[in-house]
Every structure is written in structure tokens, then in C-alpha cells.
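G., the chain you wanted modeled:
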Amino acid sequence: MEHPLKVFNSLSRKKEDFIPINPPFAGMYVCGPTVYGDPHLGHARPAITFDIVFRYLQHLGYKVRYIRNITDVGHLENDADEGEDKIAKKALLEQLEPMEVAQYYTNRYHKYMDMLNVLNPSIEPHASGHIPEQIELVQTLLEKGMAYESEGSVYFDVEKYNKTNQYGILSGRNIEEMYSNTRELDGQSDKRNSFDFAIWKNATPSHIMRWKSPWGDGFPGWHLECSAMGAKYLGETFDIHGGGMDLLFPHHESEIAQSVAANGKPPVKYWLHNNMITINGQKMGKSLGNFITLEEFINGSHKLLEQAYSPMTIRFFILQAHYRGTVDFSNQALQASGKAYERLMKAFARLDAIVPAEVSDFNVADLEKDCYDAMNDDFNTPMVIARLFDAVKFINAVADKQTTMSESQKLGLQKIQKNFVQEILGVKPEVQIDSSDSSLGNDLMKLIIELRLKMRQEKNFAMSDFIRDELKKAGIELKDTKEGTDWSKTN
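Predicted structure as C-alpha cells:
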């Protein structure tokens, strides 16, 4: 079973034929969140990007085992081998157990992924739940002479690995550049070279998260978890590994080195990386005041937002850019995306009411083929959306009595709606306002909405969110817009 799917492989930097395994099976591993803070746009883009890959491969008939990990240990500040564990630091600040912090933010991540209509992975392993596998991988690397122990920590020997392999094969870096661009740093004197990376770290007395190992109490290095869990669930070589472009170096580069050194073979056939997100042309960061969480986007509470944006508007906006291109979030762009999304949904809603008549010259078969060609061309969702809007024009023209549509054309468009809008792009209608509510119900809701607005004006966001959440439990959903707040029943 072969399909003409071509993907951009970050390893080879070119589009290549994807060779399916027979029977068709695809193993995909994607780096999930480090759970120490509220999910933000940086979490949304890779989640939606690889949700599309997952959905499309399944649509083509592949049996996909999709692994998305949770990093809940070992990710130190600045992605380095020194500094505080991000989750442990949060736990100390909030006087919680580290696993309480990890579970709380994992739950928050799942909540917003559900709102964005991101499918659940096949398996979602946690780094803290796979310490034995990581210790075993460290032992293998030591036995093969590709790692060394120093003061209770274990480091991967990049220089030795590079004698028989290429460290930098994914990122395009070479070891000579690393020599010239790095220097010995304080706290790294136990390394042979400053670019060697930790695969096991000795835990200082103040370090909360620690496990017993042959080298003393410690914790795994950040890069180790993906190599260990990928091999456990997908085998020593699998099809697709994905993540954000910021993970290309050093995280994914180090994964390759560990796996090749341990198993003697490349771990992944295709590396896919989504590009970065900017806010009004600037890189997102707390120091710039443009760090916006998904919750703030959806309730419109951030100072840079002119209004609230629905989860489907955010999803649709992300899909309007190719996953390898930069996405710039601005109010103007999101508002335009919201209008386009509503136009798409309204047109396909009109399709069901159309009474077929004579056939017109609109070619539904060509439109369907173009959508498949776009998806087969490295998951080109912007091109799919562009062709869907050609269908929108036709549907609206028929509904407005400007042309006609045959039964076969209608069935073809309904098939396209099911396959591409709902199943592959994962875009669904927002809940519509129920106009049949009683006058008393409308008056009560108007009062509640005014009360919530007062809470927001007074910056009492906790109470505002409480009102919204309690209404949702009761089957009523609020939607904040620039013009005000609308409400609808959800059941």
C-alpha cells in the first residue's frame, strides 16, 4: 500500500518519497511539553502540526502508533546541564511536591489540547516513569565507551563519537565550530569538553527529584528520555520524529548521537520540525511582555489582545500557514482568520439545505484531487484551505440562486467536508447561539454576563473565570467577542 506522500526531512533537507511499511504501519514520536507552566502558543503549534500528520496518515490507511512524551524531570534551566530543574523550582516556589506541579500542568495541557481538537496520542509516556530504561541506556553507552563518569554524573563523549559518526548531522553544525564557539564554563569542569552533554546528573543535596543509580543518587539528562522511550515503544528505528525547530539542536542532535552509539543505527527515518511563533513580529518571551497563554487567548484577558479568540480560530489560523513557516500572531491576523473560519463553516452548513438541480461546470473531482495533492506535498494545509474556499464560493453561489448544483456534486462536496474539513484538518463548528430560549432565560443570562464583565473590569479574573467555568458545567458556553459576550447551550 503506497501513497504519493512526500515530506520534508530535516535530516536530508529535501522532500523525499515516504516509503510505507507493508502492512502499512507508521511509528511517530513527538516531543511533548515540559509541564511546569500554563500551556501557551508554543505548545499549540507543534500539537496541531503533528495532529495533522497523525490524522492524515490514519486517513490514508496507516495504523499509526503516535507517542507524545511528557517531560517531568531532567529539563534544567536554559536547556543546559547546570541550573535548577524547572519543575523542582516551581515546586519549591509553590510549596508543592514536584509531581503535584507536573500533574497539575499536564491536566491543564490536556484541557487546552481538547479545546483545540487535538487528538490524544496512542501512548503518552512520562520521563519520570521510565527511569529504569534511561539508566539501562546510560549503562549501554558506558559499556560501549561512548560515555564517561565524572563526580557522580555521566556525560556523552561527543568528540569520541564524532571520530566514527557525525555529531551535527541534523543541525548542520560541526565539531570544529563548537570548539571555536564554546569555552569552559563554571560548573562544567567535570566534563572533558564543554559540548559534552549529561546523560545522568549527580543530584546535589538540595535537589528534590532524584533516583538511585550505579553512579549515586541523581536524575536523567533531558536528552536521554526521548531515546529511551522512543526505542521502548517504537523500536530502535522508527518512521517519524517531530518537534519544534528550537529542539533541533541540541535536543534532537543529541538524541541521534545517543541512539546511534547505543544501537549502531539511525533512530529515525524522517525528522519533521515546525517553525517558531512570533507575536507582532517579535519572538514570544515573558521579558518582552508578549507571552500569552492559551487561556488568555481564549478569555481575552491579556493586555495585547483586543478580544477573546475561540480555540477553533486559533487552530484555523495555525493551519493557514505551512508548518515549516513562521507564524506571526497579531490581532488583525487572528480577526481575519476568525472571519475566514466562520465563512467556511457557514458555507458548508448551507450545503445541507441545497436542493440538487442540474449539473454545473464546477469540477468537484478536481478539487478533491487538488486537496489530496496538497496534503501529499509535505502536509500543505494552506493550499488545502485555499481550495476549500473555492468550494465555499460555489456553495454560496448555489445557495444564492446564482448557479445550480447536481446531486453528485453535492455528495462530492459533502465527502470533501467530512474528509478534509472535519477529519484531516480537524476543524469543527463553534456552538451556535440557541435563539429559542425563553425571555426569562435571556434576561438572567444578560444579568450574569454583565456581572462577569464587571468582574473583568475590576481585574477580578478569578471570579470571572469561575462564572464562566460554572456556566460551562451547567451546559452554557460563553464566547467573548469585540462586540460583547454571546452565550449558547452546549447540550
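Residues 278-424 form a domain with the Isoleucyl-tRNA Synthetase; Domain 1 fold (CATH 1.10.730).

Shout if anything looks off.
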